[in-house]
C-alpha cells in the first residue's frame, strides 16, 4: 500500500550521541542538522540498473537507499553498490502536540534503541530520521530511521543486522 507523499523533516544524529545528547558532536561526526521542511517531489528520472522507487512506508530493514531522500519517495539500490543510507526501523512518536524542536531528541530516544547495527559498525554510523511535519500531525506520527555514514560518504554493504 502506498501512502500519499507527505513532506518530511530530516534529522541527523550520530549514533554515539545517545550517551550525551547535549554534548557537541565530535570532529569525526557530521554537524547535526535541525529539522527542516523538505521540497515537494520532483519529476521521476530514469533509475540506474537494479534500483527501484518506493514510498518510505514500504521499506524493509536492510534496504539500501541512494540518494538521501528529499521526500517520502526513496530509491532502493543493491547494497553492493555505493549508497548513502540503509533503512533500519520505524518509531511512532508519542501522542501530544507537535514536537517541533524536540523532534531530534525524540528521534534519538525512539530510533537509536531500535536500530540493530552490526557489531563493529556502530561508531561509523549516524542516524537520519525522516519524520512528520506539523502539517501532517497528529495523523502522521511515524519516524523512519535510516543509518548513514558518520562521514557523510557513500558506503557499500550492510550495517543493519
Percent of sequence in beta strands: 15-25%
Oligomeric grouping of the chains: single chain
Query: How many strands in all?
Result: 7
Structural class: mainly beta
Distance between the termini: 25 Å
Order of helices and strands: EEEEEHEE
Give the biggest sheet: 7 strands, antiparallel
Mean pLDDT: 77
Helix content: under 10%
Q: Cα-atom Rg, whole angstroms?
A: 15 Å
Helix and strand topology:
Elements: E1 9-14, E2 52-55, E3 64-65, E4 73-77, E5 85-92, H1 103-111, E6 125-131, E7 142-149
Antiparallel strand pairs: 1-6, 2-4, 3-4, 3-5, 5-7, 6-7
Give keywords:
single chain; mainly beta; 161 residues; 7-stranded antiparallel β-sheet
Structural account:
A hairpin with a 7-residue loop joins strand 3 (64-65) and strand 4 (73-77). The chain is 6% helix and 25% strand. The chain is mainly β and 161 residues long. The chain has one helix at 103-111; strands at 9-14, 52-55, 64-65, 73-77, 85-92, 125-131, 142-149. It has a seven-stranded antiparallel β-sheet with strand order 1-6-7-5-3-4-2, with helices on one face. It is built from one helix and seven strands; from the N terminus they run βββββαββ.
Amino acid at each position: 500500500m502506498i501512502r500519499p507523499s507527505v513532506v518530511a523533516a530530516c534529522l541527523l544524529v550520530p549514533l554515539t550521541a545517545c550517551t550525551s545528547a547535549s554534548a557537541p558532536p565530535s570532529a569525526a561526526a557530521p554537524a547535526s542538522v535541525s529539522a527542516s521542511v523538505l521540497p515537494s517531489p520532483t519529476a521521476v528520472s530514469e533509475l540506474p540498473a537494479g534500483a527501484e522507487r518506493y514510498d518510505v512506508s514500504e521499506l524493509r530493514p536492510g534496504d539500501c537507499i541512494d540518494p538521501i531522500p528529499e521526500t517520502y519517495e526513496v530509491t532502493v539500490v543493491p547494497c553492493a553498490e555505493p549508497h548513502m543510507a540503509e533503512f533500519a526501523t520505524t518509531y511512532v512518536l508519542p501522542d501530544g502536540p507537535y514536537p517541533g524542536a524536540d523532534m531530534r531528541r525524540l528521534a534519538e530516544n525512539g530510533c537509536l534503541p531500535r536500530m540493530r547495527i552490526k557489531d563493529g559498525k556502530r561508531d561509523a554510523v549516524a542516524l537520519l530520521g525522516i519524520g512528520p511535519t506539523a502539517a501532517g500531525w497528529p495523523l502522521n506520527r511515524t519516524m523512519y530511521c535510516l543509518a548513514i555514514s558518520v562521514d557523510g560518504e557513500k558506503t557499500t554493504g550492510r550495517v543493519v543486522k
